Amino acid sequence: MDLISLIILLAKILIIMFGVLVLGAAMAVLAERRVSAFIQERLGPNRVGPGGIIQPFADVVKLVMKEDIVPVQANRFIHDMAPIISISVALSTFAIIPFGNSIELFGRQIKLIIADVDIGILYLLALTSIGVYGVSLAGWSSNNKYSLLGGLRSSAQLISYELSMGLSLIGVLMISSTLRLDRIVLLQTEYFWGIIPKWNIFLQPLGFITFVIAAFAETNRLPFDLPEAEPELVGGYHTEYTGMKFGLFFLAEYANVIASSAVTVTLFLGGWHLPYVDQLGISPFILSLLQILTFLVKVILLVLFFIVVRWTIPRFRYDQLMHIGWKVMLPVAIANFLITGLIMLFR
Fold first, then answer.
1. Helix (H, G, I), strand (E, B), or coil: what is residue 18?
2. What does the longest C-alpha to C-alpha distance in the chain come to?
3. To the nearest whole percent, how much of the chain has pLDDT over 70?
4. By C-alpha distance, which of 303, 309, 289 is closest to 25?
5. Which H, E and C letters describe 191-246, residue by residue?
């Protein structure tokens, strides 16, 4: 790798980290508060900055200034490592997500993806499996029964829904014949009869529904936030966390929501593809900017969907969570790729 390529790679990493951690997570927190306030007919944050727009950054300052309290009987090393694992896994997911096709800058064609790897989906599934360790270890290391129950719930939830999530992607792999996320997006830029875009949401509707539901469970969002159910477990796995370590868990949750939305857009909603615009004959540079903007708008809409669902649907009981995972979603995911295989066989 030459020096210019290394600089470009570092620039992409810094842009993604800044966009996700500073802008994305902060705006997601603000949107969460404003949307929940709108649904509940109240004002929400409106004091710090115009319209409360600086409130998330004020919260970060508050968390940094708070005391870091660790229980006497806790495993200090694991207690400190757990939030770092959670945020690291959340950020690592963005390495394989293409937020555009390519852009030409200073006479060099730059692919709008950090790591263009051949096993993109396998990398994604591996990271989602590792992510649960942060929550589980946080629950175990705190030496608190509520934290431990939250960590155990998270482990059981992951096993139940990770299987359905993986199976829901098999249909996409079968029709795409590739594990590369950028190639999957390119295949979605074609059209049925020259009119309807070949987005996988139209080809794999059952896979899309299963994947989105599993994404809610993977990110521990309502109605699947059993690992931190406040009425039962005080705060769940992060009961014994304060200050910036709690802030890292908080940040990881919203980074995971953004990552799940970005992956869903990439696999099922055409990624950066904006229908019919590529037929207008506009300049490649403007087209690249439109692709990035299209991807961002799709991700923002899905993040808003995550938020609206949280403040609309009540939490499931734990037995209902397990019932949905094993007796509803798993059979649906298996049926989906069997039907996909039969259609491909007869075609």
1. helix
2. 67
3. 99
4. 303
5. EECCCEECCHHHHCHHHHHHHHHHHHHHCCCCCCCHHHCHHHHCCHHHCCCCHHHH
Residue 271 to residues 248, 251, 277, 289, 345, Cα–Cα distance (Å): 28, 24, 14, 14, 27
Give the span between the Cα atoms of 257 and 37, in whole angstroms.
Answer: 20
Q: 3-state SS of 128-175?
A: HHHHHHHHHHHHHHCCCHHHHHHHHHHHHHHHHHHHHHHHHCHHHHHH
State the first-to-last Cα distance of the chain, in angstroms, to the nearest integer.
44
On whether the CB atoms of residues 243 and 67 are closer than 8 A, the answer is yes
Is residue 347 classed exposed, middle or buried when 0-12, 13-18 and 19+ CB atoms within 10 A define those classes?
exposed
3-state secondary structure 98-109: CCCCEEEECCEE
Cα distances from 164 to residues 79, 152, 169, 292, 337, in angstroms, run 30, 19, 9, 30, 11
C-beta of residue 260 within 8 angstroms of C-beta of residue 164: no
Gap between the Cα atoms of 143 and 146, Å rounded: 9
| Cα separations in angstroms, 232 against 143, 228, 256 | 17, 8, 24
CA trace torsion 305, 312, 157, 177 (10° rounding): -30
The reported pLDDT for the residue numbered 107 is: 77
Per-residue pLDDT tens over the stretch 93-143: 888 999 888 888 877 888 888 888 888 888 888 888 888 888 888 888 888
